[in-house]
Each structure stands twice: as C-alpha cells, then as structure tokens.
Specification:
It is a single chain. By secondary structure, this protein is an alpha+beta fold. Helices cover 25% and strands 45% of the residues. It has helices at residues 3-28, 110-127, and strands spanning 35-44, 50-61, 67-78, 81-94, 98-109, 135-143, 153-161, 168-170. The longest helix has 26 residues, at 3-28.
C-alpha cells in the first residue's frame, strides 16, 4: 500500500471517529435540566478585604439516570451587579429522581459589597423607597463533567429576596447546556 493511500485511510478513520463522538454528545443531552436552588449561606473564615460564605445549593435530579459531576462553579448577582463567585472541586453523584445538598465556598470582595450598597443608596435617592424593595438575585453556575464525559451542565436560578418580609419569591429558570 502506498503512503498516499495510507494517509487517505487515516483521514477517513479520523473523520468517522469525529462524527461518532459528536453523535455520542447528542445522545447524552436527552435528560431534563436539574433544578438548582439557593437554600442557605453560612459564614466562613475570611481574609483581608473579602467575606467568604458557604453557599448551600439544593440540586434535584429529575432524570432516570444518575447525574455525575466533578467540580462546580457559581456566580451570584444582586440587582444585576456581580457580587460573589466561587468554585469547588467536589465530585459526586446525584442518584436518579433524587436530590443532594451541595456546598460551594464563595468570596465577596469588600469593593463589591460597597458597590452594591452605594448603588442601592443611589437608587433609593431616585426612587425614594429602594432600600425597602426586594433584592433581585441571579445565580449562574456549572456542574463540571466527570473525566471521560463530554457533558457539563449549566444552571441558573433567579428570584427576589425581601429583607422586610418573610416570603421569598423564586422565578427560577434552569438551563442545561452540553459542553
């Protein structure tokens, strides 16, 4: 066999392998999105000009197969402004039709907190009653794909936190995206 024919065969095998792997990705995405909700925050030891919290998330798996994850990242916005972010290298499995409580350490810089407070005070001057209004939060994150898997799951949760009321409104929108 000539070197030219060998190269053609290698290219064909490479293309077929690529098509097969892309088809595998498409079949992996058939599940429903997990439901992810913020359920609490606990203080952690902080350093210098940052405040740290353990962000507690309840993750519900509504699928017929287990949800495997390896790592997690989150970003938390208040009133449309970035406030906190965090990552965790925890790995695990959420069984089918089950839920788990996951914890991610998040950091809030003093500058972000001051920026939030000043923006809220400025809005209060223009709107007159902004300090008594609910705080809109948005959580975005990703559950990392375990080794050997091509699927990372993105999620989001939105809602309002009213500090002067006992109710929390949650207008969640969860999304699953394959990576």
């Amino acid at each position: 066999m000539s070197q030219h024919n060998f190269m053609k065969q290698c290219v064909v095998v490479l293309i077929l392998s690529l098509v097969a792997s892309l088809t595998g990705c498409a079949t992996l995405s058939g599940g429903d999105s997990p439901n992810v909700r913020v359920v609490g925050m606990e203080p952690l030891p902080s350093e210098g000009l940052e405040v740290r919290f353990a962000l507690k998330l309840r993750v519900q798996n509504p699928n017929e197969s287990a949800l495997l994850y390896d790592g997690m990242s989150v970003n938390l916005d208040l009133d449309g402004r970035g406030l906190a972010s965090g990552v965790s290298n925890a790995a695990g499995e959420i069984p089918r039709f089950s839920e788990a409580l996951l914890t991610v350490p998040v950091s809030i810089s003093a500058f972000s907190a001051i920026r939030q407070l000043l923006a809220r005070a400025r809005d209060n001057q223009t709107d007159g009653n902004m300090l008594n209004q609910p705080i809109v939060y948005a959580l975005k994150g990703k559950l990392g794909a375990p080794e050997g898997s091509l699927r990372a799951i993105r999620f989001s949760d939105k809602g309002e936190l009213d500090l002067f009321s006992t109710e929390t409104t949650n207008t969640a929108k969860d999304e699953a995206t394959d990576n």
